[in-house]
Amino acid sequence: NVAAAHLREAEQTSIIARSRALPSFGLSGNTTTSKTKGEDRRDGYGLNLAGSWEPDLWGRLRNISNAAEASEQAAVEDFRGARLSLAANTAKAWCNLISAGQEHELAGVTLESFEKNLRFIERNYKGTGEGALDIQFGRTNVSSAQRAVESRGLERDEAARSLELLLGRYPSGKMRNGKDLPKLRRFVPAGLPASLVDRRPDLSAARARLFASAQRADAARKALLPSFAITGNAGSSTNRLGDLLDAERLTLALAARFTQVLTEGGAVSAEARAALARNKAELHRYSQLALEAFREVESTLAAERALAAQEGVLATQHEQAAHAEKTAGRNK
Q1: Radius of gyration of the chain (CA)
Q2: Distance (Å, whole) CA 64 – CA 14
Q3: Dihedral in degrees, nearest 10, Cα atoms 301, 306, 309, 313
Q4: Is the pTM of the predicted complex or chain greater than 0.85?
Q5: Mind listing the pLDDT tens digit of every residue in the chain (332 residues)?
């Protein structure tokens, strides 16, 4: 909602910037009433149409319009990024809920295993007066497993609330986790061009903001140059309201205005330098963001390979644990 509101704001700002290059017109009217001693009341009516237009001799207004359009494009990319982020965070939250549910289930299985081992230990040492230490260790393991069940249950409930919040369903409390994680492509295909990263919405938005800041810097620099404006007005005044639109009473005036800023305490030149500094800041921000994007891709690819290796080790560990459990069952 916030990104959508900023997009609508940018669209209207762009319209305002484009309108500066067009002529502006204004219509005004007035009435007067006068009465002197010994005379009747006299009414007067006036109507005036005024217009002005500033020719864009140096392209300053075009720079302002280009900056507004670039800012609008940045808002579009921010909106795209917000939608992608929402989809990604929702998918991540769903996977987190499934994972939390599996961990809670695993904690329950672990608790059952420790309880079974404790019963076996107590039965073996019953009446012997020995094994007190083993029994205490067994009871400690059971207590720790009970705590893990409660902790994993809390994490599962928190994951469900997070997903409900993203889906706009909080606080229904009806979200339940699935059993299995979704099947995804195991590896990113090799040979993908690095230019794909350039399509990220955050990079596209930063690039648009960089262009907008450059256009604003050009506009601020051109504000030091002379400006011209053409103004005109047409009006009429009469004692009768019905004669306001009479062509014979219409007066026309046309004028040209030349303006050159000589000094404003250095404000105009300071604004030009500040706009240039903002453009340099946007350039550094874009460079940093681009490097961060490539770092994230490289880190994600490295993490994928490392997690795949861990998955293989965990599969072997699970197989060995299963064999150990069968062996312990036969020995009992």
Answers
A1: 38
A2: 9
A3: -150
A4: no
A5: 788 898 898 888 888 888 888 888 887 777 777 776 666 677 777 777 788 888 888 888 899 999 999 999 999 999 999 999 999 999 899 999 999 999 999 999 999 989 988 888 888 888 777 778 888 989 999 999 999 999 999 999 999 999 998 888 887 777 777 778 777 766 666 677 778 888 889 999 999 999 999 999 999 988 888 888 888 777 666 666 555 555 565 565 566 666 665 556 678 888 889 999 999 999 999 999 999 998 988 888 888 889 888 988 989 988 888 888 778 666 65
Sheet with 42-53, side-by-side order of all strands: 24-34, 42-53, 227-238, 251-259
Beta bridge partners of 235: 48, 251
Alpha carbon distance, N-terminus to C-terminus of the chain: 63
DSSP class of 39: S
CA nearest neighbour of 74 among 126, 19, 11, 166: 11
b/e 217-247 (16+ beta carbons within 10 angstroms → b): bbbbbbbeeebeeeebbebbebeeeeebeee
Looking up tokens 């006299």, which residue turns up? 42
The DSSP secondary structure of 236-277, one letter per residue, reads: EEESSGGGTT-GGG-EEEEEEEEE----STTHHHHHHHHHHH
**Nearby residues of 329 by Cβ (< 8 Å), 6 or more positions away:** none
Q: Supply φ then ψ for residue 184, to 5 degrees.
A: -120, 165
DSSP 3-state of 231: strand
d(CA 117, CA 139): 10
Distance CA 285, CA 66 (A): 20
Q: How far apart (Å, rounded) are the C-alpha atoms in residues 151 and 154?
A: 5
Question: Nearest 5 degrees, angle CA 176-CA 179-CA 183?
Answer: 120
Query: For residues 153 and 147, what is the distance between their CA atoms, to the nearest angstrom?
Result: 10
- Pairing between β-strand 42-53 and β-strand 24-34 as defined by DSSP bridges: antiparallel
